[in-house]
Automatic annotation (TrEMBL):
Pfam families: GWT1. PANTHER family: PHOSPHATIDYLINOSITOL-GLYCAN BIOSYNTHESIS CLASS W PROTEIN (PTHR20661). One of its GO terms (biological process) is GPI anchor biosynthetic process. The keyword Ribonucleoprotein does not apply. It is found in: Membrane. It comes from the Eukaryota. One of its GO terms (molecular function) is glucosaminyl-phosphatidylinositol O-acyltransferase activity. This is GPI-anchored wall transfer protein. It is a multi-pass membrane protein. Its main location: membrane. The chain crosses the membrane at residues 30-53, 74-94, 100-118, 139-157, 169-189, 235-254, 261-280, 300-323, 335-354, 369-388, 408-426, 432-459. The lineage of its organism: Eukaryota, Viridiplantae, Streptophyta, Embryophyta, Tracheophyta. Keywords: Membrane, Transmembrane, Transmembrane helix. One of its GO terms (cellular component) is endoplasmic reticulum.
Length: 464
C-alpha cells in the first residue's frame, strides 16, 4: 500500500521559484531553434523514403486483425531509427548542446542545401512530384507536439537552460510559444478554415466539454497532490485547457466567414492592445490579487482575447493558403501556397521586430499583439522549413510522425501524466546532469513508443 501512496511535494516552493522571474532568450535564438526541429524531420523524410514500410493493410478496420511478428519487428526498428534521428537530436539541442544552437543551425542549413542539390540532380521528376500539403501540415503539427512534450518535463531540470523557459512578464522563451502554437496549429486546419457548416450549440458544447473536463481534472489533480503551479502563468484556477475551451466557444458563438476572420481578428487584437497600453498591462503584471474570481485568474481570463484574435487570424490564413477556391476539406497543393508561406514567415518576423520595439515587448502572459505576431512568425517558419521536402520525390511521414499525428491529444495527456509522476517521485532540482538527461531520454522514448504503438494497433484517443 505504501508503494501506491502518492508522495508529498516538499520542494513545491523551490520548483515554483525555479521557473519564476525568467526573462527568456532572443528572437534570433528562437528562430534558430524553430529551424532545427523541422529540419531534422525533413532529413528523416528523405533518408527514410526509400525504405518506408508499406502498412496499408494495417489501416483496415478489422477487430480480429493479427499483426505478424515480422511487421512488429520492422515497425519497431523503424520507430527506433525515427526516435534517434528526430527526438534524440532535439533533446540534445535543448540540453547539453544548448550553447551550440547557432552552430547546429548552420550545419543543418548546409546539410539541407546539399541534400536538395543531390536529390534533385538524381531525379528527373523532382518538380513534378510535389507532395500533398496535407503531409507538410501534419509534420508541422507533430513538430509542435513533440517540442511541447519534451519541454514540459525538461524545464524542471537544471540541464534545461532557463532562457528557454516561460518568461515572467516580457520576453521570448521557447516555452512561451507553446500554447500559442497549439492555437495556430488548430486554427489552420479547423472547420472554420475549411468553411464547413456553422457548428450548432449542441456540437459546440460537445466539442469543448472534453477540454473543460480536462481543465477541471488538472485543477483537482494539481491541488490534490500539492503539485507546483506558477500562479503568474494563468492565475490561481485557470489553465491551458480552459483557454482552448474558451477560444473554441467564442469562435462557435460568433460565427464569422473565414474571409472576414482576418479583419475581425486584427480588430480584436488592436482593441485589446490599446487596452493594455491604457493600463491593463500594469494590472495583469502586478502581483496583487483580490478575492474575486476575475482577479484570481486575471492572466488567463484577459489573455483569452489575445488568443481568440490569434485563432481568427489563423483561420483566415489557413483558408487563404490551403482551402480557398477549393471545396470544403480538400487542400490545394500548388507552388503558390508554399511561396505565400515563406512570404508570410518573413513578413511576420519583421512585424514582430517592429511591434516588440515600438509598441510593446512580447508578452505571453498577456498575449499581446507582439506575442501573437511572434507565434505566427515562428509557426510559419516551421511550416516553411517542413515544405522544403516537397521539392523532392518520395516524401512520406515517418512512423513516429504518423503515430503522433493520429493521437495528438492522447500524446499530450500522456506527457502530462508522465511529467507529473516524474516530478512527484524524483527531486528534479538535485539530480546530476547525466541522470537528468537519462530520465528525459527514457521519458521521451516511453512517450514515443506508447503513442506510436497505439496508432500501429489502431487505437485512437478521441473523446468527441
Amino acid at each position: 500500500m505504501d508503494l501506491l501512496r502518492v508522495p508529498s511535494n516538499p520542494n513545491k516552493q523551490l520548483k515554483e521559484e525555479f521557473v519564476s522571474n525568467l526573462t527568456g532568450s532572443s528572437l534570433l535564438e528562437i528562430a534558430a531553434l524553430s529551424f532545427i526541429v523541422p529540419a531534422l524531420m525533413v532529413l528523416r523524410h528523405w533518408s527514410g523514403s526509400a525504405s518506408a514500410i508499406k502498412r496499408e493493410s494495417m489501416q483496415k478496420k478489422n477487430d480480429n486483425f493479427t499483426v505478424h511478428h515480422e511487421e512488429w519487428r520492422n515497425y519497431t526498428v523503424s520507430l527506433v531509427v525515427d526516435f534517434f534521428c528526430i527526438v534524440f537530436p532535439i533533446l540534445l539541442v535543448f540540453t547539453v548542446l544548448a550553447e551550440w544552437v547557432y552552430t547546429c543551425t548552420i550545419c543543418l542549413m548546409l546539410l539541407l542545401f546539399f541534400c536538395i542539390l543531390a536529390k534533385r540532380s538524381n531525379s528527373s521528376e523532382g518538380s513534378k512530384e510535389l507532395s500533398h500539403l496535407r503531409t507538410s501540415i501534419s509534420s508541422f503539427r507533430v513538430s509542435v507536439m513533440i517540442v511541447t512534450c519534451l519541454c514540459i518535463l525538461a524545464v524542471d531540470f537544471k540541464i534545461y537552460p532557463r532562457r528557454y523557459a516561460k518568461t515572467e512578464t516580457y520576453g521570448t522563451g521557447l516555452m512561451d510559444l507553446g500554447v500559442g502554437s497549439f492555437v495556430v496549429a488548430n486554427a489552420l486546419v479547423s472547420r472554420q478554415a475549411r468553411n464547413s457548416l456553422p457548428m450548432r450549440w449542441k456540437d459546440a458544447i460537445q466539442s469543448t466539454s472534453p477540454l473543460i473536463l480536462l481543465g477541471i481534472g488538472r485543477l483537482i489533480s494539481t491541488t490534490g497532490v500539492n503539485y507546483q503551479v506558477h500562479v503568474g502563468e494563468y492565475g490561481v484556477h485557470w489553465n491551458f485547457f480552459f483557454t482552448l475551451a474558451a477560444v473554441t466557444l467564442l469562435t462557435s458563438i460568433v460565427n464569422i466567414h473565414p474571409r472576414h476572420c482576418g479583419i475581425v481578428g486584427s480588430l480584436i487584437l488592436i482593441a485589446y492592445q490599446i487596452c493594455l497600453l491604457k493600463g491593463l498591462n500594469e494590472y495583469l503584471l502586478s502581483n496583487r490579487r483580490d478575492m474575486d474570481i476575475i482577479s484570481q485568474n486575471k492572466e488567463g481570463l484577459f489573455s483569452v482575447f489575445g488568443y481568440w484574435g490569434m485563432y481568427l487570424l489563423g483561420v483566415h490564413l489557413g483558408h487563404y493558403l490551403f482551402f480557398s477556391n477549393k471545396t470544403d476539406t480538400v487542400i490545394q497543393s500548388d507552388m503558390w501556397a508554399r511561396i505565400r508561406v515563406w512570404f508570410l514567415c518573413i513578413t511576420l518576423w519583421l512585424l514582430t521586430l517592429i511591434l516588440d520595439k515600438y509598441v510593446e515587448r512580447v508578452s505571453r502572459r498577456m498575449c499581446n499583439l507582439a506575442y501573437v505576431s511572434a507565434v505566427l512568425a515562428q509557426n510559419f517558419q516551421v511550416l516553411s522549413v517542413v515544405m522544403l521536402s516537397d521539392f523532392l520525390p518520395g516524401k512520406k511521414l515517418s512512423m513516429l510522425e504518423e503515430g503522433f499525428n493520429k493521437n495528438l491529444l492522447g500524446a499530450f495527456l500522456l506527457a502530462n501524466i508522465l511529467t507529473g509522476l516524474v516530478n512527484l517521485y524524483v527531486d528534479t532540482l538535485s539530480v546530476t546532469p547525466a541522470a537528468a538527461f537519462g530520465i528525459l531520454l527514457g521519458y521521451a522514448f516511453a512517450l514515443c513508443a506508447v503513442t506510436s504503438f497505439a496508432s500501429f494497433c489502431g487505437v485512437k484517443f478521441k473523446f468527441w
